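Exercise: predict the structure of this protein bound to pyridoxal-5'-phosphate.
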Amino acid sequence: MERRGFLQTSFAVAAAGLAPVTALRLPRRRLMRRPDTAPVPAKSPIRLSSNENPLGLSDAARTAIAEGLDEANRYPGEWRRRLVAALATKHQVKPEQIVLGNGSTEVLQMVVQSAGADATVIVADPTFEDVPRYAERIGVRVEKVPLASGYTHDLTRMQDIAARAAGPVLVYLCNPNNPTGTLTPAADVDRWIASAPERVTFAVDEAYFEYASGPSYWSAQKWIETHPNVMVVRTFSKIYAMAGMRLGYAIGHPAAAERLERFSAGNNANQLALAAGLASLGDDAFAQKSLAVNREGLQALYRCLEELDLEYLPSQTNFVMHRIHGDLATYNARMREHGILVGRPFPPMLAFSRVSVGLPEEMRVFTEALRSFRQQGWV
Ligand SMILES: Cc1ncc(COP(=O)(O)O)c(C=O)c1O
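Solution:
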């Protein structure tokens, strides 16, 4: 655009009542606000619906974003290289084994696309919906396998379906699983991967990896050096509280990473998210605080659910699936009327509600609401 035209446009924007460009600089004070100490505003809903980290962005991420604004006019190549290098160090792999995504959701989309139109996608039921949803949208066949007793993946049945499928197979394993918060023993996953033919690809979604513990759980990352058919998917949305920033990644064999990259948009992670991600990786204190707040919230939830004798699934994540008595849509609407958003329905588990862990004060409000529901005979 010629300078004169540009000036005219700027004038038109200002005349339309919009802020002039110089006034759009965000005050640093607002970026540095700490929401974890702020009281819950009475009128805004308490969001216990999407497994977000209630602490808000870490100070380190906020500082990185504020400083990163100065480079927001540039393409983010250098920031991509820096984050990929940091992730490669963290996971002890080569940079070419990391694939970035605009949230891990985009990585899951790449996983589905790279499986090919003639693939069979095998998923648990219920599980995180994105993989079956992406597959169904592009006409790829999906086989949903009900969870086994104990809410683990029914690996025997999944393996059986994989063996009978004619062409390539994509197995999506969400471990720990969303919405149940349960683990599938890693040794069982290992056994299948070890014996699977090359035409069976595994995408292991470890979005809640940091929250999980116990002797039966470990990452599927151990397979990626030797098995190009295994990919591990991680996110900055949960432990690092960056859900709104959108940043996730896959770790895999260089050949697996190259296969995925074919389906990624160039520069698919924005520069501020990359800067925030890089800062978050070095902020172990924040990750520890996220875990501590989550532990406290889980304990408050368990106490209340036990008191009300409502069955729940002990969680390895930042959410709990618990039974309600009555209709789920009515329950969700009543919670909304009390200013609380809880999880969407996860068929076929319609006798259960998924509630995410919030701040201690938010947990107090939620558990009080649940107790009052009981008094009215609603749960
Ligand atoms: C298992 C699982 N995978 C992936 C995602 C999406 O994460 P992202 O925000 O990185 O797209 C979620 C979000 O809740 C999830 O539960």
